[in-house]
Amino acid sequence: MGAARIIVLSIALVAAIGLAVVIRNMLVSNRQPVAVAQAKAPETPMTRVLVAKRDLPVGTRLQPDDLGWQSWPVSAANSTFITDGSAPTAAPTTTAEKAADSANQAVKALTGSAALDNITGAVVREPILAGEPVQERKLVRGGEGGYLAVILQPGMRAVGVPVTVESGAGGFILPGDRVDVIQTHDSDVQGAGGQKAKVTETVVVNVRVLAIDQKTTPDKDSQAIVGAVATLEVAPDAADALVEAMARGDFQLALRSYADANAPSGRGVSKRNSPSVKIFSQGETTETAVAR
Predict the structure, then answer these.
(1) Which of these three, 112, 140, 168, is where a domain ends?
(2) Which of 18, 116, 140, 260 has its CA 20 to 30 A from that of 98?
(3) 28, part of any domain
(4) Residue 130: which CATH number?
């Protein structure tokens, strides 16, 4: 075989091998899936909403531990929800963003906010469930209409009684304190010489003071309130006793210790209706009430 022929065959073989490699690469590339570009979902703007940490029944006086801030989608936030006032932010996606968001929320939870401070001390008017956003319409604050009706215990009554500085323990009786109502009046029984004896009786015992005048909470750092009317929380029969006592004259409020908060509360024992004994002496008869 001539040299020219060998060279031609070699070139043809190399060309065939190259063509085979090209065709193989083309077939492999056609079998690989084509990556489809997906549009990135838009980030959801978030805000922080004040929610209840536990079930809050009617009459609950809100404390900071009862409430907490929770991230909430802006699109799902009702205008009646209470927010921390911060501008809406996009939901964190990366690990760094989530860590920064957690740190930011922890700082806000520790330092508090004006919204949380403003709501502390309000009373729940309608039940609020754990995790439910707090709404103003379900709350009532001191001085607002319906406040006393909310804080009254079921079955109790609010009765206003006149007080002075002297009869109100010098003004040191504050809303939330507990008192006895004591009255001294003429007895129905005549004593020696035709004079009516004085009788001192406790009209009601260990009742809660709801307000002094129109103040249901003392001013900040205030240790005394001088008012003309004290509103007391009493049972229906004790309310009758108070009204009857007011018709007989003035009375005194006696401040009780906080340690007596769980002591019996209600109507006192009337000496006018207590058993009595008659004493005959030197031709005169006197009748003396006997305490039960």
Answers:
(1) 140
(2) 116
(3) no
(4) 3.90.1210.10
Instruction: Say whether both 268 and 207 belong to one domain.
Output: yes
Longest pairwise C-alpha distance within the chain:
174
Is the Cβ–Cβ distance between 63 and 119 less than 8 Å? no
Query: Are residues 189 and 227 in contact, defined by beta-carbon separation less than 8 angstroms?
Result: no
Tokens of 148: 């006393």
Q: Residue 210: what residue type?
A: L
On average, the pLDDT of the chain sits at 77
The mean pLDDT value for 31-52 works out to 71
Strand partners, 229: 162
Q: Which of 141, 130, 134, 42 has its CA nearest to residue 84?
A: 134
The domain of 190 spans 157-289
Would 163 be classed as within a structural domain?
yes
Distance CA 18, CA 10 (A): 12
Tally of domains within the chain: 2
Q: Mean pLDDT over residues 104-117, rounded?
A: 58
Question: Which amino acid is located at 94 in the chain?
Answer: T
List beta partners, residue 64. none
Rounded to the nearest 10 degrees, how much is the dihedral formed by the CA atoms of 156, 157, 163, 169? 10
Of 109 and 13, which is predicted with more confidence? 13
Whether 67 and 82 have beta carbons less than 8 Å apart is answered as no
Query: In sequence order, what are the beta bridge partners of 75?
Result: none
Q: Residue 171: left if φ>0, alpha if ψ -120 to 50, beta else—which one?
A: left
Instruction: pLDDT band for 110, please (50, 70, 90 cuts).
Output: very low
Q: CA-to-CA distance for 174 and 222, rounded, in angstroms?
A: 9
d(CA 82, CA 80): 7
Dihedral (CA of 233, 238, 240, 244) sign: negative
The token duo for 92 is 């964190």
What does pTM read for this prediction?
0.56
